[in-house]
Design goal:
single chain; 5-stranded parallel β-sheet; 5 helices; 5 strands; globular
Length: 128
């Protein structure tokens, strides 16, 4: 079933990464809401605010709630999670994918790779 919700949550402790990803996603018609931490994101979700992402892009390594913990907490929702990390450890990658991650990208990554991962997670037609 195609997911017509085109809102993506970007959770990263680096403000410049959040801004860059928001611009990149907007350039292909995908709305992005950004969050500086896993705690802020979860708090917004639980508050009943208008944050209902169809996909979450999350930094794997953050202070507090890291990407893997966020994946565990969001697993019951079925929302696809795409990880980004600056420290690509094959064991960590395998663990994240085994727990249901929709994607895993090593920073710095090509914008096209992120767009493709989001398209797949949102079940959108792939752009040329």
């Amino acid at each position: 079933m195609v997911n017509f919700n085109r809102t993506v949550a970007v959770v990263d402790d680096d403000q410049s990464v959040r801004r860059a990803l928001k611009r990149l996603l907007h350039s292909v018609g995908v709305e992005a809401q950004t969050f500086p931490s896993g705690e802020t994101f979860l708090s917004t979700l639980s508050s009943g605010a208008s944050c209902h992402p169809a996909c979450v892009i999350v930094d794997f390594q953050m202070p507090g709630i890291d990407g893997l913990e966020l994946l565990c907490r969001l697993a019951p929702t079925g929302v696809p999670i795409i990880f980004m990390t600056g420290h690509d450890d094959p064991a960590v990658r395998q663990k994240a994918l085994a727990r249901g991650a929709a994607g895993y990208l090593k920073k710095p990554f090509d914008g096209t790779a992120l767009i493709r991962a989001v398209e797949q997670a949102l079940e959108l037609p792939v752009l040329p």
